[in-house]
Amino acid sequence: MKLSAFPEEIRPHLLPAPGGKLVYRCLDCREEFGIAQLLYTCPNCGQVLLLHDQKFQQLLDRPPALWHRLFDYRKMLNVPALKGIYRYHEFIGPVIPLEAVVYLGEGHTPMIEVNANLQEQIGLQFFFKNDGQNPSASFKDRGMASALSYIHYLIDQNLASNVLAVCASTGDTSAAAALYAAYLHPHVKSAVLLPHKKVTPQQLSQPLGSGAAVFEIPGVFDDCMKVVERLSEQYPVALLNSKNAWRILGQESFAYEICQDLEYELQHKAVVIPVGNAGNLTAVMSGFLKFYQTGIIGELPKIIGVQSRHANPVYRYYQQTDAARRRFSPVAVKPSVAQAAMIGNPVSMPRVIRLVEQYDRLAGRQRVFFVEVEEQAIMDWQLKANRNGHIACTHGGESLAGLAAAVRQGYLSSREVAVLDSTAHALKFAGFQQMYFEQQFPPEFEISPDRALINTPMLVHPPDLSKVPAPGKPLHGNDLEKFVQRMADEIAGRLKLKKQKI
User: Are 394 and 367 in contact (CB under 8 A)?
Assistant: First the structure.
């Protein structure tokens, strides 16, 4: 749609020019630092950072109704830089010129209402937001689009060159980092660290295919994270984990899209999120807070953070109801089918603590809750979701198990509507489904497959059928007719079909 076709009062706002004044702000000492260089922790106290727009108050000059119309009209623009997360440019990265935006098709993933059968089982209306439909098939692309657009901006401004981007990963981060870095080749190269034998073959293939240097090391994700943190402290590399505040900024788009899809009516709404490294939880809270502070939404939705009992440090922290007595303690994780959430010491925990307090305070009551689920429930609910026409990964199963737990514990009622984060594509974790169906889960997963959910292929080859086709050896004439009829009858018998009367 051409600019001339839009309402006159909207045209000046459709194509945003660089604006705002972003700085890194320390969560602890509140010191602020310029963005001309990559920073991950506060140079003064070592705490993690968030990006803060010193001109944020200027966004209040536009009335909420104008913001609503602007975002809706931007949907119709044929401008690649505004098709993805930068539709919300003024909130995501106002300093980034549109020509520096890296857009690979990320963002604006569909929000699919769950079928009536599954909603009845849970007891309320809910949707899956399928972030597996991002380019590298996970929600991580939102943060990478932001982080690599920023690096692209630094390169264009001659503030960086020959960038080596590094990350630790359980699979999805490495896939996204390698993909977006490859798009900026040869100016950016990537290296990823993975825990040995803790990443699915599908996920391992992605950074290899994008040309990243892939290093497998002993241990779990937390050990990989310690190594890349040391690399970023001692060598000139760009860290792409969620310790990078630009990642958080891009992932805020998940919250903005939900607001837009729900037509900015957030009363009696809830969002369910697997916690993992807590970057996505941080981003979603931050996004809703920004839209609430500017009046774009009139109420903060409930947020349900979900953790497996095998990796539950955030849940344990909030089990202590007296905030003054809470003490965060990392945990030693056990194997989990929700691999991206198998993190015992979340990098973004300080952000979570600060934002949960702010979120509940501005809402005037508790709006952020945490639940714990069993590995058994994660797999069972994932399979139930997919048997009801959805594309839920194991983390989508974790979200659904968390929703069921939140309803049981009274955090959500039947009058509320929930949006569940299915963080990646189910095919990335197909191996766990196969292990379930073949009943081959190692004991440490603590999963006993439900026979009612097991599904396996059936070989059809009646013993009385001597001639069957093979590659390069097709059947003809009576042999082919006999084969087709015999196979049709055998399959019909197994399906208990009755012949139609002619």
Answer: no
Q: Which segments of 409-476 does DSSP mark as H helices, in order?
A: 430-437
Phi, psi of 76 (to 5 degrees): -90, -5
Q: How far is CA 104 from the centre of its chain?
A: 16
> Which residues neighbour 139 within 8 Å (Cβ) at sequence distance 6 or greater?
131, 172, 251, 254, 280, 421, 423, 424
Report the pLDDT value the prediction gives residue 200, as an integer from 0 to 100: 87
Question: What is the per-residue pLDDT for 392?
Answer: 94
Are 13 and 23 spatial neighbours (Cβ–Cβ below 8 Å)?
no
Nearest-angstrom CA–CA distance, 116 and 265 = 22
User: Is the per-residue pLDDT at 501 higher than 90?
Assistant: no
Phi and psi torsions of 213, nearest 5°: -80, 120
Asked if residue 410 lies in contact with residue 296, where contact means CB atoms within 8 angstroms, the answer is no
Quote the pLDDT of residue 276.
Answer: 87
DSSP-derived pairing of the beta strands 238-239 and 213-217? unpaired
Model pLDDT, residue 198: 86
Delineate the domains of the chain, giving CATH numbers in brackets: 111-135+252-453 (3.40.50.1100), 139-244 (3.40.50.1100), 458-502 (no CATH)
Computed from CA positions of residues 357, 360, 366, 367, in that sequence, does the dihedral angle turn out positive or negative? negative
